[in-house]
């Protein structure tokens, strides 16, 4: 059961990363985040470009300005873990 749950979790993370990685470069950059948020105009208008830079900066461990899959997974699972334990 645990193995199945982990596989589903990893599959979901991979799909989410691919959704944000619009150019299939293997990295998510600020412009890709902005483009996705822009498809939801009301949501996009709630943020300014520095907000997107801050989102990337929070998870960008190697400070290259983009998120690799590993950085994305670390960020997403850390967020999930902290939400789980703070409930």
Structural overview:
69% of the residues lie in helices and 7% in strands. The longest helix has 19 residues, at 2-20. The protein has a single domain (2-85), classed as EF-hand (Recoverin, domain 1), CATH 1.10.238.10. It is mostly helical. Helix 2 packs across helix 4. Residues 83-87 have low confidence and may be disordered.
Short description:
This protein is mainly alpha-helical. Helices cover 69% and strands 7% of the residues.
Chain-averaged pLDDT: 83
Name the CATH class. Mainly Alpha
Largest sheet: 2 strands, antiparallel
Work out the count of structural domains: 1
Category by helix and strand content:
mainly alpha
| The CATH fourth-level homologous superfamily | EF-hand
Got a strand count? 2
Parts with pLDDT < 50 across at least 5 consecutive residues: 83-87
Distance between the termini: 24 Å
Write the layout of secondary structure elements.
Layout (H helix, E strand, L loop, with lengths): L1 H19 L6 E3 H9 L2 H4 L4 H11 L6 E3 H17 L2
